[in-house]
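yo

u said u wanted the structure for the complex thing, so here. seqs first:
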Amino acid sequence: MRADDMLPTADDAAAPGAPRTVMSEPDVARALRRIAHEIVERNKGADDLVLLGIPTRGVELSRRLAALLQEVEGVEVPVGALDITMFRDDLRHQPTRAPMPTRIPPGGVDDRVVVLVDDVLYSGRTIRAALDALADLGRPRAVRLAVLVDRGHRELPIRADHVGKNLPTAHSERVMVRLTGVDDAGDSVTIASGETRAGRPSTPGGAR
Amino acid sequence: MRHLLSSADLTRDDVRMLLATAAEMHDVQRRDVKKLPTLRGRTIINLFFEDSTRTRSSFEIAGKWMSADTINITGKGSSTSKGESLRDTVMTIDAMSVDCVVIRHMASGAAHQVAQWVDASVVNAGDGTHEHPTQALLDAYTMEQRLGSLEGRRVAIVGDLTHSRVFRSNAITLRRLGAEVTLVAPPTLMPSGIRPWAERDGLHLTDDLDAVLADGPDAVMMLRVQRERMSGGFFPTPREYTVGFGLTRDRLRALTDANPEAVICHPGPMNRGLEISADAADGARSLVLDQVSAGVAVRMAVLYHLLAGEEVAA
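structre next:
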């Protein structure tokens, strides 16, 4: 028996499979604002920071964090994107897809503090791949991880430094993040019961 | 996708996906560390029965940059020169459990034939006068990098169409991307039986290069005069070919007068002074070296989509 079997699952009152909102638009905004403050607190300022979003939604979140850091510290933090497609360990388990752009800010990552930004932290395999991808691009002084949602079920020794919301889930549940600017709908995080595709918990995209 | 044998096998969406992947691979090529772990543990054999500089080396580099093991076998120096048949050579290679065979062969249809024999993925790197699909992809990629979307763009393909696998694959791929394609060749080098294809796929045919250039096409692709495939009689003298169908200095001026943004492609190797002048080959409008640079990125994209994903049942 796994620990997650004892965790509370979807609201019994809701229809089975119906998504339940766990973060609304103001919740997402508040969480990001707190993360922005945590990042500068931890870093003792915004110097040497580089934010790298993991496509697709991590890139949007990193842009928002940069705007908040600008507001809080008055510093323009370089923002980029780090695609991990070619570094995945489960390439053989799904059809290939075109990689998303990797954009490293002009100053590079050498001797900087890189904050990786993603929407959902789940198995940790995406972040493992991101660390490998990052190693080929330079040698940051430190790498930190900021995520909007940590839904548990790690398969690797990886943890987030900054978490918007810790969300206890069952393996069978799906967490969906929607963000204005990426999705048609406004910001929200919802959770739905339903079959995850076996063995593929870290599929990028809206549902995890 | 299991094999890449013909440009006709690729839908518009397939082409779009390969070109989008190539664009990201091109970025990797500009980094200090040009290595991705994606094809670690995969083995690729480059089986080349015809001479090649850029295609073979770019397939080898593409495989290596994606961490595959690549091995080159050429017709000369293999057991083929001892009289081994193509089938025996290929079956020998397949018995070593390779994942991909990249093949260039002088016989049209060789890649299709090999794909029936082996378990490995097969990439056609040029089969006789039939097709050369990765060349068409890299030409489309290079043109898009300079011109933006090829939808509605006018591309002229000029020269020895009869012996050109590059033109056949290019005409298909360019039409997939919505370009207007005009084929220019002396009547003796216009393939027999091209009309039904041209009518079906909307290819324009002509033997008047000057009229095409005066019209200001967005891209002009000059084809190599393939002396090794010619058994005489296609044109009286090289000089006469140049006068009628070479991209000379005067024609280059006519082209840039009609369309200052026009670009010039050549799949290489070039016969300078025959089908293309030095001014055209080395000028600011020439994409010849961009094409070579794109070749590696496009072949990385092809190998990735053929070899990295879910195993397809044979």
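Chain B touches chain A through 19 residues (CB under 8 Å). The CA atoms of residues 39 and 304 of chain B lie 7 Å apart.
cya
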